[in-house]
Design goal:
7-stranded mixed beta sheet; alpha/beta; Rossmann fold; Dehydroquinate synthase-like, alpha domain; two-stranded antiparallel ribbon
Length: 353
């Protein structure tokens, strides 16, 4: 499978990924190579990863607890302290082996430790392969608020090994699938239609490369999210608020990222129908498709009010306005749309009806 090359790094797949990794380790003479894992990737992915290393190097394993709830500055402090105690210097390398939480946090740790050391991302979930693998966004949450602290900084390389998907439960696979469907919605109707026909994990693996290519093309045009890169936020304004609300509310079962974003894409699809021309038939197609894969959630009036209150913390806000990315039609977007508050409750009502 071909590699995807951006301005400053490349995404390598499967066999080529390990060839490129071994070449990188051989040529860079890193003082120490740290591998950041969680309890799941330590057990399920690290042995396979280490078996592909050729050469003798000084490795140190650092483990954090899995889950969005641990994507915090406190966890970063623990990793920074571990790096310091284990003698990391500016010629050290951090390899982040895990899902989006771990690669986001690990990238931020590497970007800030001693003002920046090299890091390599090895995403092990579908979500991290098609979303967190490209673009250089790193960071952590601030309480329940998503990705409030971070920097944009590129890894040395990204290694996508599709075999790691075999370690995931189905719920995690389906969560990642939401971001792939989003790529079709914002940029390529044919891709959207193709994904709707996927019937197995092996078929899904064949769509990882085009999904990464699609996101990479957008990021290359706008690395710091000043214009076109904003379209990747479709479904994420309401989706992130929903995810944060369920994360902080002890009476709610925590939603995975893709599960919350799926709700965001339906509700923001409704806003698109009302404001930017998305047809009724395409709106129905979006809703029907997501509800095929994601269980419907019931929201009380209080739930909705509390979720909407969280919108004021969205990273895309400017000058006191909450800015949405909406669809003109499947494959075509409009950015920086400001929504009248009364439409939000209509959107949730449409989702639940």
């Amino acid at each position: 499978m071909q590699s995807i090359v951006s301005d400053s790094y490349a995404v390598h797949f499967d066999t080529i990924a390990f060839e490129q990794l071994n070449s990188c380790l051989k040529s860079n003479n890193y003082s120490t190579i740290f591998i950041l894992v969680d309890e799941n990737t330590h057990e399920l992915c690290l042995p396979r990863f280490m078996s592909e290393i050729s050469g003798e190097y000084n490795f140190e394993i650092v483990e954090i607890e899995s889950g969005e709830v641990n994507k915090t500055i406190d966890t970063c402090v623990g990793v920074w302290e571990a790096l310091s105690e284990l003698g990391a210097d500016r010629k050290s390398l951090l390899i982040n082996l895990g899902g989006g939480v771990l690669t986001d946090l690990g990238g931020f740790v590497a970007s800030t430790f001693k003002r920046g050391i090299d890091f390599i991302n090895v995403p092990t979930t579908l979500l991290s392969m098609v979303d967190a693998s490209v673009g250089g966004k790193t960071g952590v949450d601030l309480g329940p608020l998503k990705n409030q602290v971070g920097v944009i900084n590129q890894p040395v390389m990204v290694l996508i090994v599709s075999d790691f998907l075999e370690t995931l439960e189905e719920r995690q696979i389906v969560s990642g699938f939401a971001e792939m469907l989003k790529h079709g919605l914002i940029r390529n109707e044919d891709y959207w239609e193709a994904l709707k026909k996927v019937g197995s994990l092996n078929e899904l693996k064949n769509h990882i490369l085009p999904s990464v290519e699609l996101k990479n093309k957008i990021v290359l045009q706008d690395p710091t999210e000043q214009n076109i890169r904003k379209i990747l936020n479709y479904g994420h304004t309401l989706g992130h608020a929903i995810e944060s609300y369920f994360l902080e509310n002890e009476n709610k079962e925590t939603l995975l990222h893709g599960e919350a974003i799926a709700i965001g894409m339906i509700t923001e699809g409704y806003l698109s129908h009302k404001l930017t021309g998305l047809s009724k038939d395409q709106l129905k197609d979006i809703k029907d498709t997501f509800l095929k894969y994601y269980s419907k959630i019931t929201f009380s009036d209080k739930d909705i009010s509390d979720i909407l209150e969280l919108l004021k913390y969205d990273k895309k806000n400017s000058h006191g306005n909450i800015n949405f990315v909406l669809l003109k039609k499947i494959g075509e977007t409009q950015t920086d749309v400001i929504i009248s508050p009364e439409l939000f409750k209509e959107a949730f009502a449409y989702y639940m009806e």
